[in-house]
């Protein structure tokens, strides 16, 4: 009986702690989003809701090395219908009891400026509020160009219990290439939230580096849903592979709309690698033609799949066959070798080994625009 009671107490404690942590995270995110959205939209009341009335802001100033600004003064700078294009995103959050720290990235244009904010929050009288903020100008480290990585939210092959996920290699190799070149990368999945990952190997140095990078993991743990994405902000979309890319992506109207806005209205790039090419098979131009029609396209070849395997029985279609049906010219090279096709602003790769080459080709095209 004592053992049963002890187990019940432990269970209740775990449940209570779980709810408490979830409530704290929601409260912290609410305050941060009030700050980000309030400053984006020029809403002083929303900004004030994010900050404690006595909050202190330590900001950058050309002639004042220690420039503190009150919340009232700061919020008064933002007016409705502000013409400056200001955007912000959360890079990381750490909660300890009734305090929390967050790191944010803020971009403003034109002219392009990028800032990193460090924010201290505290739960006061049951409400999470920002009590202090400081910022540093990081404009020199970033380009005013953004890449949107697209992934599936599927965790299984179709309706089976066979696990599926986004290839971690395809994710980190491309991401690393773009970040080192100064581009900003955002993540979107078909349902938003945490990406399902596959083929993680900590014996590979770049895997280990990003697996233990809290900001990277926060980003892929909180990917945008399609309805949260502003397509006009991106210069390229990049469809990630992994076997889960066969599901949810190709038929998603929101994903299709974002990709074609980037391609046609932003004069941007559509790219994919490995099974990520499955995501582009249904994309149509505004004239009704398939994007891949009369174009050279690569991806994971049908002949490289394991014939008769259980996972293959769940595939809704075969990539190469579907590309050919859409009028495309599907091409691939040797197994386990990089292979990339560049056809204008459509750039595709055969496998995870092509990830860096695809990213480099995208950068080359972007920098020639």
Detailed description of the structure:
- The protein is 33% helix and 26% strand.
- The chain is α/β, with parallel strands linked by helices and 369 residues long.
- The protein has two domains: 23-141, Nuclear Transport Factor 2, Chain: A; 146-368, Rossmann fold.
- The strands form four sheets. The chain has a six-stranded mixed beta sheet.
- It is elongated, with a radius of gyration of 23 Å.
CATH fold-level topology of the largest domain: Rossmann fold
Largest sheet: 6 strands, mixed
Specify Rg, calculated over alpha carbons. 23 Å
State the helicity in percent bands: 25-40%
Distance between the termini: 74 Å
Which geometry do the CA atoms define?
A: elongated
Helix vs. strand class: alpha/beta
Domain DJ-1/PfpI: 168-363
GO molecular function: glyoxalase III activity
Organism: Pseudoalteromonas rubra
Signal peptide: 1-22
